[in-house]
Every structure is written in structure tokens, then in C-alpha cells.
Amino acid sequence: MIQASTLVKKLDLQPHPEGGYFKEVYRSDELIKIQGLPERYSSERCFGTSIYYMLEGEQFSAFHKLQSDETWHFYLGSPIVLHLISSEGSYSKIVLGKNITEDEILQYTIPKETWFSAEVKDRNTYSLVGCTVAPGFDFKDFQFGKRDELMKLLPSQSDIISKFTRE
User: Fold this and answer.
1) Closest CA to 48 of 135, 130, 111, 109
2) CA 164: distance to chain centroid?
3) What's the Cα-to-Cα distance from 136 to each of 24, 40, 67, 104, 132, rounded to whole Å?
4) Do the beta carbons of residue 96 and residue 130 sit within 8 Å?
5) Contact, 25 vs 75, CB < 8 A?
6) Does domain 4-33+41-163 have CATH number 2.60.120.10?
7) Between the chain's N and C termini, which has fewer beta carbons within 10 Å?
8) DSSP calls for the chain
């Protein structure tokens, strides 16, 4: 298997604020004007964006949510576990990986405004995925989950919230 350090170097991955590493690989040069977007957007957005995203060992993607749908595509390494909490407060878990006979899936779309986090299934390795966002990603649409606020909002999910927040 390719070493994680090799991927960081070859793909020019940089630290991501939510945890892990990333590199934007596509940003559409066409824009959707604000008039053509739902009210939750504060300004125009490009048609779509995509990144490489990698978690290594004990790293995790802290709970956050976006204003757009985000599709995760599995590429290399260990399966990656997505932890999702819907806007209604229900928890679900998705495992992205290559072993489809073991109920792993190759891609999954996280609905807008869903709280989610991710972790490497085998902590002795890494997971490399791609993430595609449409309308395109903008940090204005990114919201970190604050542990205390999420626990008040979703008390039935306090164990998973505690595990995948950094406060």
C-alpha cells in the first residue's frame, strides 16, 4: 500500500481545519447568481467543487455541516466511517470502502444541513477520499459543531458528539 506521507507529498495535501489533509482539485469557473440560489446562500456560488481528503490513523473530521450536498467517493486505504446526525436529530453511520460484499459503499451523498464527522476504520492506516460539493464549496457555508451547543441541541447523541468534536 502507498504510504500516507507519499500521498501528502504527491497530491500536495495541506492540513484541513476540520482535521486531516486536503487539496482542492476542481472549482468550476461558471457561477450561479444569487438570484438563482436558495435563500440559505449569502452570495453567488460556482457550479461545483471537488477535493482530495485524507485522514490518517487517529485523525478525525470533526462534526460540521454545509449548506450544499456533499458527495464522498472512496479511493484508497482503509474504509472511512461517516457519522451523520440529521436535522431532526437521528443518527446513522455509513462505511465507505471497496468491500461491497461487506456493506461498504463506494460513494455517498451527505444531504445539506446534516451534521457529520468521519474517522478511519483501521487506525493503523489512512483513508483517501474525494469530496464533491454542488453548488460549489465556500467556507461561508461551513459550520463547525461546537460540543456544548450540539449537546444541547441533540442530547440523545451526546456520546458521538463528544467523541468527534474538539472542544
Assistant:
1) 135
2) 12
3) 11, 14, 10, 27, 8
4) no
5) no
6) yes
7) N
8) ---HHHHHHHTT-EE-TTSSEEEEEEE-S-EE-GGGS-TT-SS-EES-EEEEEEEETT-EEEEEEESSEEEEEEEEES-EEEEEE-TT--EEEEEESS-GGGT-BSEEEEPTT-EEEEEESSTTSEEEEEEEEESPP-GGGEEEPPHHHHHHH-GGGHHHHHHT---
* Residue positions counted in the chain: 167
Sequential pLDDT tens for the chain (167 residues) = 899 999 999 999 999 999 999 999 999 999 999 999 999 999 999 999 999 999 999 999 999 999 999 999 999 999 999 999 998 899 999 999 999 999 999 999 999 999 999 999 999 999 999 999 999 999 999 999 999 999 999 999 999 999 999 87
Contact yes or no for 144/64 (Cβ under 8 A): yes
Q: Which of 59, 46, 66, 47 is nearest to 13 (CA)?
A: 59
Return the C-alpha cell found at 132: 464533491
Domain range summary for the chain, segments of one domain joined by +: 4-33+41-163
Global confidence as pTM: 0.95
